[in-house]
Design brief:
The chain is mainly beta. It folds into two domains: 78 residues, no CATH class; 94 residues, Sandwich (Immunoglobulin-like). Helix content is 4%, strand content 39%. The protein has a four-stranded mixed sheet, with no helix packed on it. Strands 8-7-12-13 form a four-stranded antiparallel sheet, with no helix packed on it. Strands 3-4-5 form a three-stranded antiparallel sheet, with no helix packed on it. The chain starts with 21 loop residues before the first helix and ends in an 8-residue tail after the last strand.
Length: 198
Amino acid sequence: MAQPGKVDEELGEFWVGAPFKIRQQHNLSAFERNRLFLNVAGGDFLDVSHIGGADSDGDGRASLAMDVNHDGMLDLVVRQAGGGPLLIYENRFVPQNFLRVTLRGRQSNRLGIGTRLVATVGERQITRECYPANTFMSQAPLAVHFGLADAPQVKQLVVIWPSGLEQTFTDLAANCHILLTESSDQIQVVKPGQPIAP
C-alpha cells in the first residue's frame, strides 16, 4: 500500500504537472471497464464487477443509487456519455427493511435540503443529510433512505431542519416511505407512484 501523498504505480496512479498533459501522457479515453465494489463490514472492498454484471465497457459517467422498482432496495443507475444506453442494475441482495423519508420545509427551504436526520435503530444510530445526489447530467430523487437490516422499526428519528427547528418522531414502522413537514407532527405515508404536493 502506498504511503499517503505517494504515487502507487502498481495501481496505475500518476501525477501530471499540467492538466492538458494528461491526454499526451496517459490513456484516459474513458473506455476503461466500469467497476463495482462491495464494502465488507465497513473495512475492505471486494471487486464484484463481473459477478454483478456491472463490468460494462461503456463510457459510464454518472452513477446514482435509487429505488427504481419501489421494493425498498437501492438499485444502481449508470448514465453513459456519447449516447450510450442507460444501464440499470437491479439490487438482488437478500431483501432487508428500510425507511424512506421525503421532507417539506416551511421555515426552511421547501425541499428540506440541508436537513440532518438521525435514526435510532436498535442499539445503533444512522445519520443522513438531505442533499440531492448530482453527477454528470444526472440527479437522484430527493429522498433520504435508511437501510434498517432486520430491524422492524426506527425507534426514534430526530429531524434537524436548516432553520434550527428540531423535531422527534418515535416508533416509525419499517418498509414504508413517509413525508415529514417542518413544524408538523403529522406523518404522511406515501404510496409508490403517488405524487407528493409541494
